[in-house]
Amino acid sequence: MATYTITINERTTWGKALMNYLRALGVIVQKVSPKSKSSYIRSQEDKQAGRIESFESSEEMFESLGI
Questions:
Q1: Which of 54, 56, 59, 62 could form a disulfide with 67 if both were Cys (CB 3.0 to 4.6 A apart)?
Q2: Are 29 and 19 in contact (CB under 8 A)?
Q3: What is the pTM of this model?
Q4: 50 Rama class: left (phi>0) / alpha (psi -120 to 50) / beta
Q5: Residues 14, 6 contacting (CB under 8 angstroms)
Q6: How is residue 61 annotated by DSSP?
Q7: How confident is the model over 7-25, as pLDDT tens digits?
Q8: What band does 3 get if pLDDT is binned at 50, 70 and 90?
Q9: Nearest residue to 6 via CA among 24, 23, 25, 30
């Protein structure tokens, strides 16, 4: 027996119909949701993408923010 992984948009008419058809056939369908990333992983991705700014002092940060 082979295992297949497919992505179906259940918000569409065709997606709902296909899911109902597969359930009616008795095919075991498991919903797999993507795993959410931890805050540490997201912060590392931000750092690698250059979305992080560093400041020497809080005054420098406030000046950068215009406060």
A1: 62
A2: yes
A3: 0.41
A4: left
A5: no
A6: H
A7: 888 899 999 999 889 888 8
A8: confident
A9: 30
